[in-house]
Structures are given as C-alpha cells and as structure tokens.
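Continuing the batch. This is chain 6 of the set; chains 1 through 5 are on the previous pages. Same settings as before, nothing changed between runs. Recording input and output for traceability.
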Amino acid sequence: MENNTQIRVRYAPSPTGRLHVGGVRTALFNWLFARKNGGTFVLRIEDTDLERSTEESVEQLGRSMRWIGLDWDEGPEAGGPHPPYRQTERFDLYREASRKLLDSGAAYYDFATPEELAELREKARIEGRQPIYTGGEYREMDPDEARERIEAGEPYTVRFKTPREGQTVVQDMIRGPVTFENANLEDFVLMKSTDTPTYNFAAA
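Output for chain 6:
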C-alpha cells in the first residue's frame, strides 16, 4: 500500500469455546495483510460475555493460534503500547463513554423489563412489522426521575438515542454510500443491566 498510514489490524475472538475455522480465516486474513504491508497484528480478547467466557478458552485460543503459526505483535503475553488487551480490563473506559453520552443527551436510561420487551416484540409480530424499540416513555424521562429509580435499585440498561428522522449514511469501501432510514433503526443497548458494555459498544 503506497501511503503513509500505519496499518493496524485486529483479531478479536470471544473466549466462549474452541477456535473454529471461521475465526482462523479472519485471523489469517488480518495476519497476512499486516505482514504484507509491514503493519501491526493486534490480538484482543472480547470477553464481554461474563457468563460464557472462560480462562481455559483464552489459553486454548493462544495455543491454537501459535500452532497454526499466527503470532501477534500486540495483545496478551506480547504486550504493546495500547493496553489492556482484554475487554474486561477496559470496562471503566466504556462506563465513562456511556456517561458522556448520557450527559450529552445522546443516550438514556431504559427501565423496560424483559416482559415488556417480549410483549412489544409479540405485538410487532402479530402486526407483521419489524420489532423496533424506541424507548417509549423512558427515552425522554427526566434525569432526576431516572436517578431516583436507579438509587431505588431498579434494573436498567443504557440505550443510544437513535435519531427518529432523516437518514444515516455509511461510506463503505466496497459498496460505496449505504443509506439507512433512521425510522427503521432501534435504540440499541450500550450498557447491559450488569453495568457491562455490550459486544457492539465495546468493539466499535
């Protein structure tokens, strides 16, 4: 590649089981791209799923990659200038980011129960439409009321406040501009009820 950009590519497996062929393919493509262009191959452990992630799987991932011949320049064991390389060690960064989004009005506390969400999904199914959750009463709830409910111990998540009007345009390197109608996008979860980030928020 003839530019001044330093190539950095990342392989970020979830340690919830053994390394599979799809993961090997992704790791290999990134490793080859980094090696061909004199770049950096980063290994980061996406252990955001606290219930399913295990230390045994982390160790197995490392052994399997070394057995295949894929070494990493930054990551667990190798270290590097941008630690930590495990998501569970980065949770405070995402908590701070979610607080900034809440303070700016770009996110909100959502108190919808699993039963309420299931009821909304079932209603959408019966009506033949996509279940798009937009926060209902919680989206514009007074911050003081939200804090009172949190202090009272009520479970909550933090959701991104997706614009309800207009379009979101993503510049894709292969497909070009890809347009999404904001009305078709739901308010996705950033922080789970366990005060831990969702995979998509952490990996963004």
